[in-house]
Amino acid sequence: MARLPVALVGIGKIALDQHVPALSSSNDFTLAATVSRKGSVPGVPAYTGLDAMLAAHPEVRVVSLCLPPVPRFLAAEAALKAGRHVMLEKPPGATLAEVHALEAMARARGLTLYATWHSRMARAVAQAKAWLTGRSVIRAHITWREDVRKWHPGQEWVFEPGGMGVFDPGINALSILTEILPEPVHLTGAELEFPANRQTPIAARLAFSGGVTADFDWRQEGPQTWDIEIDTDQGRMALRMGGNVLEVDGQTVAGEADIMGEYPALYARMAELVALGQSEVDLAPMVHVADAMTLGRRIVTDPFHF
Ligand code: NAP
To answer: Sheet of 137-145: strands edge to edge?
Structure first.
């Protein structure tokens, strides 16, 4: 079958690290154009504005948005209005309401909107979900501690309103949690640490119903930690390496410490959704972040500089 032309918008870290390699090995898509003020991909027609790209490339059926969350809504709206299917990086928007609006727009036009959660495609997430089926969760703890300077070098937008701060990686953990838990949970309390010179938190501690807790921190240098540990009525499991390794009762049973499979799986899912004429928009991870911002106790901490 002919590969569908796709345009990538926002040629920054994730576009170059993951989207471009995933598209270059995709059997479903071919990268037909990019839109970015500064970035480009060698050999691919490059535009600095979305409208010019949409006008010049009527063959582009899918627009994949790798922009930060705040500028993403207007780009998604323009692409849908131009009759293109849209794929959203995580988190799918700056607010819940704007993503609901995009969902309605896509539905009205018979287009696909896919709010991706790359961590749900990590190697061991499906096995963890299957293992938890039929078990009762007694307690669960998430430890998501990484170095913002390593993963978001100089990206001021993460500390601007709508940038979500430490919830930018933390929402990946929440995307896994909301996928694998047999019963949904809701936030009951949160403590958020805001650097004195910033608009978004650099650390967060969350408590949920059902004995679930989380510790997100963006100040961890050295080894990075992306773990979800769960005790059940029938044993204990841990997802490590951002969902890529599954341990049961202390023994590794699945996966490997490598995230390169996530983005090819996202594009394969997008191809499936377009073929089926469906959308997939699950906002459960973002609801928890919005609730933490609503209910969280604010603590002012040391100023942060890149
Ligand atoms: P990034 O390196 O800052 O790239 C985003 C690109 O969007 C920029 O290079 C910029 O390109 C363009 N852009 C347009 N309007 C912008 C604005 N108002 N502010 C900043 N950039 C703007 O960010 P990223 O790390 O790729 O993250 C993009 C999205 O991917 C985020 O939602 C993030 O959560 C998600 N993501 C990131 C990672 C990671 O490891 N970094 C992993 C998974 C997912 P031009 O200036 O050329 O227009």
So the answer is: 251-255, 245-248, 235-240, 225-232, 137-145, 212-217, 203-208, 187-195, 297-301
